Amino acid sequence: MTKQKATTRTRVRHTAQYRAEALGLAERVGIKSAAQQLGLHESQLYTWRKKAEQQANKSEAEQRYTEENARLKRQLAEKEEELAILKKAAAYFAKNQK
0.70 exceeded by the pTM? Predict the structure, then answer.
C-alpha cells in the first residue's frame, strides 16, 4: 500500500481590472481563444462574464429603485403639504362657525 502525497494548489486571485480586461479580450476574440491566451479555463471566463452581467443588472435595478424612492418621497412631501393646508382650513372654518 502506497501513500499518495496530497498536492495542494494555491488559488490565484485575479484583480477586478484583470477580469475586466480578460472579458474584453474574450469579447473580441472569443472565450476559447482568450482562455488559451491567458492560461485560464474557459469556465472561469464564463463565470466572470456571468457575475459581471449580474452586477450590471443589479446596478440597473438599484438605479430604478433609487429613482422610484425619490419620486415617492416627493409625492409624500406634496401630500403632507396638502394635508397641512386642509387642517388649517378645517381649523379656520371650525373657528368661524361658533
Answer: no
Using 50, 70 and 90 to split pLDDT, how confident is the model at 1?
low
Any domain includes 6: no
pLDDT digits (tens, 9 = 90+) for 56-76: 888 888 989 999 999 999 999
d(CA 20, CA 48): 9
Distance of CA 45 to the CA centre of its chain: 20
CB 42 within 8 A of CB 31: yes
Range of the domain at 90: 16-96
Return the biggest CA–CA distance within the chain: 107
Residue 2: inside a domain: no
